[in-house]
Every structure is written in structure tokens, then in C-alpha cells.
Request: fold
Amino acid sequence: MRAFLHDVLITFILAIVIFFGLRVTVQTYVVHEDCMEPNFQEGQRVIANKVIYKFHEPERGDVIIVHPPAPYNQKEPPFIKRIIALPGDTIEVRNGAVYVNGSKLHEPYIKEPVNYTLNRETVKGGYFVLGDNRNIANDSHLWGTVPRQNIIGKAWLSIWPLDKWGLTAHYPLKEQINSTSNNK
Reply:
């Protein structure tokens, strides 16, 4: 009987450690808007890696889960966005394209070319994030940058619906820079 109680206690302790370990390292997120189409649809479930940015800073091209910025009620569900520019970068949107540090981005992940303009500015106070469905996205072109402390984690794995199951695609800046001579 004593051995049985010991085994139950060990199993219970391991379950608690695993449960809290998972709560600290990953989080499930339900996409609540269509601003990331065609890559993420409303209702899709994504697992976010909450510890990756303890080891390195967020990078351009990362898809992140963020707490809503200041103009929004903090009770709103987190947003899912793509990091386009880092603090200190310059950002500009013109002629249907996004430019980071003067270089035009090749963005195979967007739904359609952007139909607004944004004058060249230096990113200050956080990360410049955009939705992949640029023309309807509620993102940095409207409300500014996202402070580092608002970033929950990096979208890592899509788990639902099953036809969307798999690792989340990220596009580092070096893969996005258009190498043609007309990028300015």
C-alpha cells in the first residue's frame, strides 16, 4: 500500500511540474481577426513559444502574439502580427510596397499589395508590426509601435484546423530584401 501511495504522489507531482512548465513556456492562442490572412484565419489555433525571446531578441519577419497596445482595452484578446521593423530601423510604405532601411521588402506572405502610404520614419519605442492582410489590418501603421513588454511570444505551431497543422513560417529580413536595382 505504501508503494502505491508513493507512486501516486510521484505521478501527481510530475503532472503538476509538467502542467506549470507548459504554462510558463507555451500558450495556445485563438486568432480573433482576419488581418493575418492568407496565413492565419479567424478561429485558427496557434501555439506561441513564450520563452524564445528570453534567449534572443525578436527579429524582423517573426509572427508574434502581442497584448493590445495602449489605445485598446487591455481585456481584448491578444493580437497576432508580423514584425516588420526593429527599434532604430526606418520604415516607409509607398507605391504598394514596404521599405525597411530604404530596401523594398519581397513579401510572399501578404494577401495583396498595400493601398496606403506611410512617410519614412524611424521606429522608436518598440517594434513596428503589420498584419499580412495589410489593407484591413489594425496594426502599427495606425497605432504605432509595440513595446517589448507587450510581446507574449513567437507563433510557433498551428494546431487547428487540422489542414493548417504545422510550423509557422517566418521570413527573416535577408529573405525579404528585394535585390533588384529598383528597390529605392
Remarks:
- Helices lie at 2-25, 52-55, 140-143, 173-176.
- Residues 2-25 form the longest helix (24 residues).
